[in-house]
């Protein structure tokens, strides 16, 4: 079960990070449907997993519904969300069609509005401002999604866009600057939208637009928890037999069938989480709030998150719905 | 996959080692080279990571739990808690980047003083990326001088070409094996509840309750 880093055909994709001339366009390699280069040959060829025909039709129907819901260029979205929040919630849980994610994410997060309210700002940030984090960002660019076709080419369009977005963000939000890990967030967004759109969505996620910063994460933490539980439950029989060291590896490399959203998410939503967790959390916070306040600026972020948890506005619950598993 | 937990290999000691140093100096690459003998583009470490390796050094069977930490300053509140109980700490710098070396004194040595709980904890200074000899800006002598001043072991290595990588860990472990106070801890380890462990010596049984 050892996952090799060497790609198919024995071709090594080692790219050391010294040279600064634009790299060659990497040879085309088999990729998965998200554009990541397939790393494994150990999955037998039979597992090509061509999705059944009816699934394709279902996807088409789904896209049509979504298009109707969004309207041309998102014109109907706000109206629809206000009128039928439960429908929106249900459809989001079934999965936003891949081709519409870029647009829908911008609508849900409110980043569209940020973009419209701030014409020219992104360009200004990218071209004229300098950031103290520039070197840190550059150092991480080639380490972000190195196995994705878009980011693979040294100094190619993918890496350049990623750099621009991260640099712009580090200038826009100087208190936070650049934090390792942001690249994976920005990189993912860039697979779905333009640089400028990705930048404003990053701002909406991290600093807040319609929603409080990372509100989705904190409201949706129960969902994240449930997905985790569902993964564990799905793999229970295999995991329980593993010794500790192998367990670490296994927890990082769940089998592909466990990750299938069509089975994983229904399983996740079927799991009930007791309120006990919430009680424990409150108890923990009560005990720790004093010590947290003492530790000062280092924990500023955590404190900020705490504040936000108590200021969630009810009208926003349309889009990031409260969980209703307590039926 | 042979996975029955009863077949867990025995070992004489469990050591906790820690890798620290600036972002991008090659901590994760060193670890990957040591544990899997491979080299690849690695993502920046977010928070902490860890790997386990069984080795036989100095005639002893050892289980090394090696913790790999994020180098970026932002994660320091998080990584600081991982110094606790480490028998060995490896400080890594990049011989081609001066600031990663100067940060050893300005940042990393202080971090060790602040957070390490083992007084006798063995420190090791490692200058990585010696394969890029033409870009070198930190001389070997500077490394040696620093190590002498701070009481560390010292080696230069390359995770890319694997030069000296094994030696880094080996020398560190040999020194730990030479230090009785650390040995006692490694054998009656605090992580006993996680790592199923056979107490090697009779003295461990004196503390048992029945």
TrEMBL record, chain A:
> Domain Rab-GAP TBC: where?
95-327
Transmembrane segments in this chain: where?
none
In the UniProt record, does the keyword Cytoplasm occur?
Answer: no
Q: Could you tell me which InterPro entries the record lists for this protein?
A: Rab-GAP-TBC_dom (IPR000195), Rab-GAP_TBC_sf (IPR035969), Rab_GAP_TBC_domain (IPR050302)
Keywords (alphabetical) are:
GTPase activation
Q: Where is the composition biased (Polar residues)?
A: 291-302
Region (Disordered): which ranges?
1-60, 291-327
Q: What is this protein called?
A: TBC1 domain family member 10B isoform X5
Automatic annotation (TrEMBL), chain B:
Looking up InterPro entries in the UniProt record yields:
P-loop_NTPase, Rab, Small_GTP-bd, Small_GTPase
Q: Where in the cell is it found?
A: Cell membrane
Q: Name one GO cellular component term.
A: plasma membrane
Q: Which GO terms describe its biological process?
A: protein transport
Keywords from the named record: Cell membrane, GTP-binding, Lipoprotein, Membrane, Nucleotide-binding, Protein transport, Transport
**GO MF assignments:** GTP binding; GTPase activity
Question: What membrane topology is given?
Answer: Lipid-anchor
Recorded superkingdom = Eukaryota
| Signal peptide interval | none
According to its UniProt entry, what is the function of this protein? Answer: Intracellular vesicle trafficking and protein transport.
**Stated name of the protein:** Ras-related protein RABC1
What species is given as this protein's source? Elaeis guineensis var. tenera (Oil palm)
């Amino acid at each position: 079960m050892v996952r090799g880093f060497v790609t198919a055909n024995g071709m090594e994709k080692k790219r050391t990070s010294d040279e600064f001339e634009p790299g060659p366009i990497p040879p085309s390699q088999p990729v998965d449907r998200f554009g990541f280069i397939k790393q494994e040959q150990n999955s037998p060829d039979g597992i090509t997993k061509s999705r059944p025909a009816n699934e394709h039709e279902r996807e088409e129907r789904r896209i049509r519904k979504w298009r109707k819901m969004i309207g041309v260029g998102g014109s109907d979205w706000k109206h629809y969300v206000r009128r039928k929040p439960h429908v929106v919630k249900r459809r989001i849980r079934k999965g936003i069609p891949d081709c519409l994610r870029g647009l829908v994410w911008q609508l849900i997060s409110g980043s569209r509005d940020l973009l419209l309210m701030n014409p020219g700002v992104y360009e200004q940030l990218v071209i004229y401002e300098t950031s103290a984090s520039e070197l840190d960002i550059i150092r991480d660019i080639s380490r972000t999604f190195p196995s994705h076709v878009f980011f693979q080419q040294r100094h190619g369009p993918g890496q350049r866009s990623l750099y621009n977005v991260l640099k712009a963000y580090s200038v826009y939000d100087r208190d936070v600057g650049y934090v390792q890990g942001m690249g994976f967030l920005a990189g993912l967004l860039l697979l779905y939208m333009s640089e400028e759109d990705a930048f404003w969505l990053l701002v909406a996620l991290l600093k807040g637009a319609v929603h409080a910063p990372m509100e989705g994460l904190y409201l949706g933490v129960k969902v994240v928890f449930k997905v985790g539980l569902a993964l564990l439950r799905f793999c229970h029989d295999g995991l329980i037999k593993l010794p500790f060291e192998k367990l670490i590896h296994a927890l990082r490399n769940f089998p592909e069938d466990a990750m299938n959203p069509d089975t994983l998410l229904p399983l996740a939503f079927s799991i009930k989480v007791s309120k006990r967790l919430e009680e424990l959390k409150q108890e923990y916070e009560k005990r720790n709030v004093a010590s947290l306040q003492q530790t000062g600026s280092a924990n500023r972020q955590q404190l900020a998150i705490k504040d936000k948890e108590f200021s969630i506005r009810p009208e926003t619950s349309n889009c990031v719905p409260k969980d209703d598993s307590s039926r | 996959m042979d996975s029955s937990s009863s077949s867990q290999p025995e070992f004489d000691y469990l050591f906790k080692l820690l890798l620290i140093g600036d972002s991008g100096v090659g901590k994760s690459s060193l670890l990957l080279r040591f544990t899997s003998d491979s080299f690849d583009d690695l993502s920046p470490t977010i928070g902490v990571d860890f790997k386990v390796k069984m080795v036989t050094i100095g005639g002893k069977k050892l289980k090394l739990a090696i913790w790999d930490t994020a180098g970026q300053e932002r994660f320091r509140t998080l990584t600081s808690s991982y110094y606790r109980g480490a028998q060995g700490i490896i400080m890594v710098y990049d011989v081609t980047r001066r600031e990663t070396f100067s940060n050893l004194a300005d940042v990393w040595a202080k971090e060790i003083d602040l957070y390490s709980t083992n007084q006798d904890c063995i420190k090791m200074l490692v200058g990585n990326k010696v394969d890029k000899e033409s870009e070198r800006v930190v001389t070997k002598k500077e490394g040696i001088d620093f190590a002498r001043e701070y009481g560390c072991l010292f080696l230069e290595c390359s995770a890319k070409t694997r030069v000296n990588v094994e030696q880094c860990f080996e020398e560190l472990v040999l020194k730990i094996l030479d230090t009785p106070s650390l040995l006692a801890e490694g054998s009656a380890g605090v992580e006993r509840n996680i790592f199923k462990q056979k107490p090697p010596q009779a003295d461990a049984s004196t503390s048992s309750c029945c």
